[in-house]
Amino acid sequence: MKNRIQNKDFRRLLDAFDSFIKVRNYKTGNSRMYQNTLIEFLVWLEESGISRIQELTSKESIKYFEYLIARPKLRGEGTLSQKSIKFHLFVQGLFLLNLMENKEIENGYYIPSYEGGNEKARNTLSVEEIKSLYKNAENELERALLSVAYGCGLRRSEISALDLKDVKLATGMVVVRSGKNSKRREVPMSDTVMGYLKKYIQEERSQRLAGKNQTEEAFFINSKGRRSTGENLNDILKKMIEQTKNFELIQKDITLHCLRHSIANHLAENNAGIDFIRRFLGHSDINTTYIYALKNKKRKPIVTF
């Protein structure tokens, strides 16, 4: 990769970022590590065919993250350290903030977070693997669980706590009454998700309550007609994965929380705005590394299976 920016507009943005860093008094000593890190990103954009910063989307951001993971060190052997990758992502976050403050772009884009040795906890599925799970589901409960965990991106605790009254089929919204940090939010459903949830309510849930406690409020109920626990719901997911008979998929050790990360990735890949993803998942921030003050952004439609 060359180390000089050819694009005049990118050079202008680099100058603006240089002023941004200095005004905020980021300690760099005699080095230009923030600026040099941004130069590498801008040069990568040039080589990827991006000539205007407005063309930069979440898809390119994710590809750059994949490039960083595989990039060799400039000195010594091996690839970039965890610390170096996190710094590159931090600089990207500052650059995004600078772009938005200067109104260079209207909508923010997704910047992945990096957990280093903890990738297993953030294992995700491809769209094709999600489709395989739906295809191999054996009943309406399994399809409904996929629809809430993946299609709505709910946390395991939120799925277990979900009540029947929280699924608003008339308005196409799922109400999470007490999410993380006791925050309430409403999550939009796609037509596909609504169809699966409606079928589960009308058919399987009613059958499970037959002759039992008809006043049970829980949305997901076990064979005894009681609220399903998060552990029970995870066991159902594991059974569904085994039903695919896909060895690679089974080896991934997927949990309900992995489905939540999967929908976040798929939304980002389809260029959903960062603010929409943040609200959809119920995050205070889209990832724990950066803080973005994004206001009054246009809400984009759901892009999901």
From TrEMBL:
Which Pfam families does the annotation name?
Answer: Phage_integrase
Entry keyword annotation includes Repeat: no
Native organism: Flavobacterium johnsoniae (strain ATCC 17061 / DSM 2064 / JCM 8514 / BCRC 14874 / CCUG 350202 / NBRC 14942 / NCIMB 11054 / UW101)
Keyword DNA-binding attached: yes
Record domain Tyr recombinase: where: 120-305
Example GO molecular function term? DNA binding
PANTHER family, sorted? INTEGRASE_RECOMBINASE PROTEIN MJ0367-RELATED, PHAGE INTEGRASE-RELATED
Q: Which family does it belong to?
A: Belongs to the 'phage' integrase family.
Q: Name one GO biological process term.
A: DNA recombination
Q: What is this protein called?
A: Phage integrase family protein
Q: Which UniProt keywords apply?
A: DNA recombination, DNA-binding
